[in-house]
Write a structure and sequence with these properties.
This protein is α+β, with helices and mostly antiparallel strands. 44% of the residues lie in helices and 22% in strands. It is built from eight helices and seven strands; from the N terminus they run ββααααβββαββααα.
Length: 192
Amino acid sequence: ASIDGLLVVAPDGGILSSNQRFAEIWQIPDETISQGDEAALESAFRRVEDPDAFVARVRELYERRETSREELRFRDGRTIERYGAPVTGADGSYLGYLWSFRDITDRKRIERRLRRSEERFRSLLSATTQIIWTTNAAGHIVERTPSWEAFTGQSSSEYMGPEDGWSRAVHPDDRERLRAQWATAVAEAPSV
């Protein structure tokens, strides 16, 4: 039932336990898994982008008995998060190594889209001559276009200062009305 692929390898290289999700992620047949860790590694070797580094890292972790969390790039475009940890008994004896694998391909795709969107947003902010700014709920400016200082005459200490520093750039006759509208907008905004 786990969304993670799980594999437990004995000190002698025998596979003590694995679940169906492990076989699905790695596309390893059950008969290969039953042959032990070397057979599973050989099958996995064909799936990852850098097979030599993959096998070397597995052997290093077995030897050092270290905990690790890494991302693996598969040749088919998937990204798999791999977590590994030594398993020890109550007396500290080494019992084997536990591997956990999770397909994070969708998450990585979303992260790349967000980075590209952020880059486009920053590019737009840098290129525009309009004044655009964002604040946090307390009214402190978080982002602003480079044209802010030139247009408002405010230094960064003025607009980055106390609550709603942006409002000091507004004409005094309009300031209270805009502060009230801003407070209403913050109060009605959905929480993120």
